[in-house]
Sequence to fold (771 residues):
Amino acid sequence: MIVSLLTDFGLDDNFVGSIKAAMLNVNPGIQIVDITHNVQPHDIFSAAFLLEGTYKYFPKNTLHVVVVDPGVGAERKIIVVKIKDHMFLAPDNGVLALALKNKTVQKIVEVTNKKFFLSDVSNTFHGRDIFAPVAAHITNGVPLNKLGEEIHFLREFSLPDVSFTDGCINGSVIHIDRFGNIITNIKEEFLKDFSKEIKVKIKDHTIERLSLTYSDVQKNIPLCLVNSFGYLEIAMNCASAKDFFKIENGQNIQVLK
Amino acid sequence: MIVSLLTDFGLDDNFVGSIKAAMLNVNPGIQIVDITHNVQPHDIFSAAFLLEGTYKYFPKNTLHVVVVDPGVGAERKIIVVKIKDHMFLAPDNGVLALALKNKTVQKIVEVTNKKFFLSDVSNTFHGRDIFAPVAAHITNGVPLNKLGEEIHFLREFSLPDVSFTDGCINGSVIHIDRFGNIITNIKEEFLKDFSKEIKVKIKDHTIERLSLTYSDVQKNIPLCLVNSFGYLEIAMNCASAKDFFKIENGQNIQVLK
Amino acid sequence: MIVSLLTDFGLDDNFVGSIKAAMLNVNPGIQIVDITHNVQPHDIFSAAFLLEGTYKYFPKNTLHVVVVDPGVGAERKIIVVKIKDHMFLAPDNGVLALALKNKTVQKIVEVTNKKFFLSDVSNTFHGRDIFAPVAAHITNGVPLNKLGEEIHFLREFSLPDVSFTDGCINGSVIHIDRFGNIITNIKEEFLKDFSKEIKVKIKDHTIERLSLTYSDVQKNIPLCLVNSFGYLEIAMNCASAKDFFKIENGQNIQVLK
Fold:
């Protein structure tokens, strides 16, 4: 069985190696696939975005384990959520909000049964001591209702919002990738009333056309397009839009007709 | 079957995880091995160098997937190339040039058959939408000629050159590794007419001996040697030659008798 | 069989990919698990610390391969060490010192039999040319005594010390993790004579209580706790203690009653 792993533990320490060790100790046959471990520490929204963009490409019956967990050791639930074709193990802190949007949830279980934890549970590293062995026990076929009680609600989690005024869309930057591409929270479907001659305002700059791909414009020229995850993205051909616009997460973005 | 993966997608986003997901969705039995994902964005030559140094150590019948693809979405072919014992899937942009040098190419196929792509192909992420599923279908035994038409030529690609004048070799820096070791494009075979008392000129510094290993000189002293990939390398024992010489890719290097 | 891999090769070059390739070439059935490859170059002590914290979580019979090897090419032994349930392959440079502390060593073999190396061994990359194929041959069942002669002593290796004077503990910072948490060499057992109202002095700051978890204090407030690896750690809730204290490895830390 395949387990995907998404954390903010980075690759400089032994955190991720310890989690994998503790999984394989319970079920050495698991195939572990990293989504990324370089989520900015404690950035639940970025993790939610990265999970939503990736999980659906995995085979059916993949278990997705998300350990972005600023509340470790404090009062927050650990949950398993089952939808059609996929399962998630995560803290109940909103990190699943985007992946579960418009999905039918078949079951939520609050994980409390210490029988499936490591015998010594530390206060600060539940990734290794709880998430890893519980995930491995699930892949071994332990029924979800042995892990704890079924619950029916997740914690509320509010995402950066998109608003619509006077035929214009107000959104914001939610992620900047390795190439310096600037990803907004404006989804493709919001743009369907706009022609290709939309105007995208970023800081005091306006981009006046929706491109199909990076090479639609000359090198070092800003462009915008709907990216491969379905969001409006501001980019440059062979250069970093982040460096050009000197921009950070949260920056306002406007789309005008 | 083993698939090696070499990209410039980095490990901070969900690109690599998405590619692996899309591969495993077609063939969950693939064993995926990362060469590296930290090629400098769009640096085709560095990718060519890293691939050539690594692919031959893999088991026979490994499929090497290279996604360093600045032309994504524009006119560039995607190709599968078969040589004795190894196969490559890459954009036809020169990234295979060093690996294929002096090798007999058994077959080149231009990948065009959409049947083996994801059903929705984005304009900007062919790694996930084309390369990943095509690679997985190849590991499932799909014959190459089902992927597209056979072709007989790859695009020309010119590498930084080495020249020989008055018994001296003029080369350049092609890669600087994590330890600050400076790797040149001067191959071991070019040095066979030189004694061990060669002079290597780097900026206004001259190194006057070819060492066998880093510890042949005292700590913090510059040295040169033929490295484990068969190239002339300038290094320091337990220190960074890059920091000492303040050097970048492309810098001229001379070898004198 | 599972092989864990801990190196200082980083993920920017093709070093780690080459090591994995050379392992799989001998035994394609190995399951390779990364502990980390981002040990600071040549930092034997940090590697020893990361190995000790991780290896015991792996399944029984895991082979742990450690390539942090500043002496590559010079006189230093390569050794295989067998203890109950685990095996290690590493240079004899102290990197195993913490993992083997208080353990019964069943066997040490000095690896010298070139039959199990790559046919061409470079002077500078024994990770690929010796460690990788030897590890894979071990997983294939080659008996340890075929690899070389049994030896009975490892090299001495002195660790940063903890001292006790006038009821106070003097230790030092040994590792700073991705979150900026500051890890000392003061083990939990040294603290058993102290109440929870211990005073921890770091530079000119004093922390006056041992917390159980990060969220025991308000955000951006320094705290100390026994971390999940059993060491005294200085941290901040949702912030970087490293940035707050502007501290580096080696810094003195005092614990007072």
The first helix of chain B runs from residue 15 to 26. The longest strand of chain B covers residues 168-176. Residues 84 and 106 of chain B are 7 Å apart (CA to CA).
